[in-house]
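example protein:
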Amino acid sequence: MTKFLIAVLLIGAGLGFSSGTSAVGKRPFKMVQFCVHDQQGMNNFKKTLGDMATAERMQFFDRSAALERHLAKSNVNLSRPVVYVGVKREDGSGLEAGNLGLDRFEIAIGFSEGERPTEAMSFSVRVERTLSQRWKVIAIPSDSGATPLACRTGAPTASKH
C-alpha cells in the first residue's frame, strides 16, 4: 500500500502542473478517462496528443520513461507501460495524462486552467471531442478521482461534453 501511495503522489504532483505558478496545488478543473485497449492504441494516443499540441501551439511532453525509472528505483511494482504525458501552454493551461493506479491501457486526463480558464475549457472540449472519435471517453465526477473502469465490461457510457 505504501508503494502505491508513493506512485500516486508522484503523478499527483504532475496533475496539478507543479511547475506552473498559477496551478500549484489546484485540482484539475475537468478529468476524463478512457481505454486505449493495447500498445498500438497507446501509441495512437500519444501521437494524437502530439499532433494536437502542434496544432494548438502548445508543448507536448512524454515523461513516461523517467517516471518508470523513478518508480523502479522506489521498488514500486506497477503494470507496464507506465504513462505520463501532457500538453501545456506557458500560462499553465493544458493537460496531463497517466495510467498509475488504473488498468494497463487505461488513461486518466486532468485539465489545468492556467491563467486563461475560458480558453482552457474550450481546449478541453476540443481534446475530448478528438479522443471520443476513437475511444469511449468517460467523464470523472468532480467529487471523485479516476478508478479502473474504462477497460472493464460494463463501463459507463461515453461523456457528451
About this structure: The helical segments are 2-15, 39-56, 64-73, 117-132. The longest helix spans residues 39-56. The two ends are 35 Å apart (CA to CA). The beta strands are 30-35, 59-62, 84-88, 93-98, 106-113, 138-139.
